[in-house]
Design brief:
Blueprint lengths: L1 H6 L9 H12 L2 H13 L3 H29 L3 H8 L4 H33 L8 H13 L1 H20 L2 H28 L5 H8 L8 H15 L5 H6 L8 H29 L10 H11 L4 H33 L5 H21 L15 H38 L9 H28 L1
The chain binds phenylalanine.
Length: 454
């Protein structure tokens, strides 16, 4: 059906504006918020990281979100075509995004697989445990046993593939309407339980009160990478999603609500996880396993905890899938829109390749942990750094230069005002996108390069 539509040269549109918001928010809200944000806060010194994160979000993330969606809506093309239609030799920026989506999904699917495993564990009642040491051991045993984690990674990719080949509006929109609000409600409940646990205060303090001595270039770099990762900005997802918007959509509303929602979920995930980490006597800096060890312990101290536990991991899986489909979609729509490929075939080939590239990431949680492919980075860390700190950041930088200077912020504002309403923050936005975002991101990017190379 979708290929037929493409042949007729009519692009699908979102069924409704709320459909777009849900899908874009679905892309943004994912493991980045629930799994990565809390442990990044833990690894990067707590409140100081959160503070820098929020500053970057407002000064860099939000202006870029508007830039991306506007570019998509203007051109009605997915990333590569969008850049090219305005300036021929900029198509590579879209290409960079495809590469980035590919590498993110390669390790995102590792964690997606963990979530599936935890759904099953929760259903079987195996997570009704309060002791962080036991929970840690369960997690450790699982990720270090390569066969099962590789299988679960494959299942996650297959689920992603199945949704993507059903086309855009049918698959994504319907489920989001139920699952996203459910996730939101759920995480509020968990956060309330977490902050009221005895001993939680130290965690709240760690999360919210910035210790300025913790700020260094690494923290700054990781905070910016986290903003891009969490907002799905810098790799063409938002350009592509914006391209499905009608000319009468209010772009400002759409591009403000996504970062706000995304950040609320990230902060709530922080409140759900970090206070509990302190309360149960776990270490905030224990890395990628943080959510998987801490939250079951929180559930174990809640009435109906195991029911919550099951529901929660199912909702996390859903959130992860609405993000992973956006990554796969960017790759697939390139081959469909640009190369005239068959959607199903393209999606299948890309998914298989992703799986092959992604298996080493899963293995680096176990037997390949010490297999360093660059500096002291194993495959998992390498894909993570490569995407968050280099590719997304470069994509964000190029997007700001492109919209601010090449296409021109003026023209973008004109597109934004097409609905007949004035954009009151136009001059502020133009200033940020032209003079603040490019140099700020550039400086941080240079440092990331140094960091990854040395
Ligand atoms: N934003 C998603 C998350 O937070 C991850 C993602 C990054 C999705 C980049 C698409 C593009 O989980």
């Amino acid at each position: 059906l979708v290929t037929e539509k493409n042949k007729e040269n009519k692009r699908e549109k979102w069924g409704s504006k709320i459909g777009f918001i849900l899908a874009a928010a679905g892309s943004a809200v994912g493991l980045g918020n629930l799994w990565k944000f809390p442990y990044s806060v833990g690894n990067n010194g707590g409140g100081a990281f959160v503070m820098i994160y929020l500053i970057f979000l407002i000064l860099i993330g939000m202006p870029l979100m508007l830039a991306a969606i506007t570019l998509g809506r203007k051109t009605q093309l997915s990333a590569v075509g969008a850049y090219r239609s305005i300036k021929k030799n900029w198509a590579f920026v879209g290409g960079l995004g495809i590469l980035c989506g590919f590498f993110i999904l390669a390790f995102y699917s590792t964690v997606g697989g963990w979530v599936i495993y935890y759904c099953i564990k929760a259903v079987m009642g195996d997570l009704a445990i309060k002791d962080p040491n036991v929970l840690g051991a369960i997690f450790g045993d699982f990720i270090s046993s390569p066969t099962s984690s590789i299988i679960y990674q494959g299942i996650f990719l297959i689920l992603t593939l199945l949704i993507v080949i059903r086309g855009i509006s049918s698959g994504i929109e319907k489920a989001s309407k139920v699952m996203m609000p459910a996730l939101f409600a759920m995480i509020i409940l968990i956060a309330i339980r977490s902050v009221t646990l005895p001993g939680a205060l130290a965690g709240i303090d760690f999360f919210l009160v910035p210790d300025f001595s913790k700020i260094n270039m690494d923290v700054i770099m990781n905070a910016l990478g986290q903003v891009f990762f969490s907002l799905s900005i810098g790799m063409g997802v938002m350009v592509t999603y914006g391209s499905y918007l009608d000319k009468d959509t209010n772009l400002i509303g759409a591009s403000a609500s996504i970062p706000v929602l995304d950040t609320m979920v990230a902060m709530l995930a922080g409140f759900a996880t970090l206070p509990a980490v302190f309360a149960i006597g776990f270490k905030a800096s224990s890395g990628p396993g943080l959510m998987f060890v801490t939250l079951p312990a929180v559930f174990a101290s809640m009435p109906f905890g195991m029911l919550f536990c099951i529901l929660f991991f199912i909702l996390v899986l859903f959130a992860a899938l609405t993000s992973s489909i956006s990554m796969l979609e960017v790759c697939v729509s390139y081959f469909v829109d640009e190369k005239g490929a068959n959607r199903i075939k393209a999606a299948m080939i890309i998914t298989v390749t992703m799986y092959i590239v992604g298996i080493p990431a899963t293995l680096s949680m176990g037997p390949w942990q010490e297999l360093h492919i660059l500096g002291n980075l194993n495959f998992f860390d390498f894909y993570d750094k490569l995407t968050s700190n280099i590719l997304l950041t470069s994509g964000g930088l190029l997007l700001s230069i492109f919209v601010g200077w090449i296409w021109g912020a003026e023209n973008a504002v004109e597109e934004i005002e097409k609905i007949g309403k004035k954009f009151i923050f136009a001059s502020l936005w133009k200033f940020l996108i032209k003079y603040i975002v490019p140099p700020a991101v550039f400086i941080i990017l240079i440092n990331s390069f140094k960091d990854v190379i040395t």
